[in-house]
Amino acid sequence: MLRTRFTEEFGIEHPIVQGGMMWVGRAELVAAVANAGALGFITALTQPTPDDLRAEVARTRELTDRPFGVNLTILPSITPPPYEEYRQAIIDSGVTIVEIAGANPAVHTAHLKEHGIKVIHKATSVKHALKAQQVGVDAVSIDGFECAGHPGEQDIPGLVLIPAAARVLDIPVLASGGIADGRGLAAALALGADGVNMGTRFLCTQESSIHHAVKEKIVANSELETQLIFRTLGNTARVADNEVSRKVVEIERAGGTFADIADLVSGRRGRKVFENGDLDAGIWSAGLCQGLIDDIPTVAELVDRMVAEATEIITHRLAELVAAPVSADRA
Ligand SMILES: Cc1cc2nc3c(=O)[nH]c(=O)nc-3n(C[C@H](O)[C@H](O)[C@H](O)COP(=O)(O)O)c2cc1C
């Protein structure tokens, strides 16, 4: 058992979180994560309407009686979804934990906290993490440059970003980005985090609803096989390397505008990758930790072995370094 402020304050067995994932954060995965003793998030906007979100929460409850949450992601959009209605659906459904990503959490946090809901804010900089703490969130998930999805524009990897955040924040910190195993979990705790948030690793589990070909591609990919798109738009996203992401980067470098890449990056195309396993149909998020992933376990196998490995590292490998006598020839 690894107990931290996060496990205590959120009532979760293990300090491991499955972050929101568009098209992926559905009942089966979230319930499997909850049943494994970790914290999973349904992704609100994967559901076409707020009523569908209500139904997805109900479906998740049929599969688990343990705590789980809902992720609400607020990103620049040509036709913004009705965020307030999704927020109301979350409140009506009696969900107790919400992950907010992508924008200043002030407005949503105030409403959610009025209903006793705990809020985790996902940030990519110490400045934004501090701001989130100021507006009253209960924990911060801080995404380093390694992460899948949106790493922000400052390019600070977790080895620096996590301790930089942990040393100034009073609320629990979840280290996010690049974590795929017990070594990453132990390292995050050593850096001052109270738990870890993972996307790519949970994407590649038995219970994630995506096509098997995508999971096999993640296993085959190394840490070199991602692209950073939307750099020129100030809205960087780390996605898997494929024909489409390479084309988007090429158009951006040649001075193209959003209109020139809009079709290539559409959600409709990206969804096809996950549904049909057509790896070059569109863009799909994946992080650098692909290079550390070489199997497709069940969620329970993954969580159990991460906790066992981190515990072994902390109690044996690292502890033995302290206890080891200096050998005669090194003295
Ligand atoms: C396929 C996929 C979709 C994602 N979609 C979202 C999303 O809709 N909202 C969000 O806040 N984060 C999203 N993320 C980011 C994850 O929640 C998490 O922060 C990130 O994956 C952590 O980095 P890692 O992949 O190295 O573990 C997504 C990640 C993946 C892999």
Automatic annotation (TrEMBL):
This is Nitronate monooxygenase. InterPro entries: Aldolase_TIM (IPR013785), NMO (IPR004136). Coiled coil: none annotated. Keywords: Flavoprotein, FMN, Monooxygenase, Oxidoreductase. SUPFAM superfamilies: Inosine monophosphate dehydrogenase (IMPDH). The keyword Lipid metabolism does not apply. PANTHER family: 2-NITROPROPANE DIOXYGENASE, 2-NITROPROPANE DIOXYGENASE-LIKE PROTEIN. The lineage of its organism: Bacteria, Bacillati, Actinomycetota, Actinomycetes, Mycobacteriales. One of its GO terms (molecular function) is monooxygenase activity. The keyword Flavoprotein applies. Pfam families: NMO (PF03060).
